[in-house]
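Q: How would the structure tokens look for this protein?
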Amino acid sequence: MFNYRNREENKILSRNLNWLKSFSTCTLSDALDLLGIQGVITGISPIVEGTKLIGPVVTVKEITGEKGSFSLEDFNVGSIIEIAKRDHVIFFDLEGEPISTWGELATRAAMKKGIAGVVVNGGVRDVEEIKRLKFPVFARHRVPTSGKTRVKIVFINKPIKCKDILIQPDDIIVGDSNGILILPSARVLEIFEKAKELNEKEKRFEVEIEKGASFTEIARKLHHL
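A: Here is the predicted structure in token form.
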């Protein structure tokens, strides 16, 4: 697991992220399949189409209730932005509830700090403003309902589960137009090597198609698809 305690570890992290940026979530998902790793989280999509998100994750567990269930201090999103480091991705687990836990002002604060993006297993609002800012935000719901007095932050940076996928603090989260997936930090290099192998096969597949070979013949030849 990455702990980001010194400059050398930060260099290792940056190198790993740069490697992974060249792959789509589709290629990485195939690599996870071949390695027997569950990492795809379904039902969460980008608010801003065309944005890509990648970085070590800061986990946030939240619970919801009726309006007035919690105090304003229970919903202190600013404290999470302060904890998250540059190039990190914040993952809010709101248990899929259609209540907003993120909006324009939080987006502006996160951008100012250099946070790489936000994923919400729940709702976000101020969608048009977020689109104009072009900040990578992924969510399950777009909803105007405020989280104030309806949402309580239970803990930050502890293991959580989303759709039966275990997410550990500092795991790598990747998102694009296809969806979201989690890469266990302890296996990032292994996943990268498998994704690289698959990517090379894809390129060879494309070349063979352009040459006029049949899809079935190429798949058999490359042991792919």
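The radius of gyration is 19 Å.

The longest helix spans residues 188-210.

Upvote if useful.
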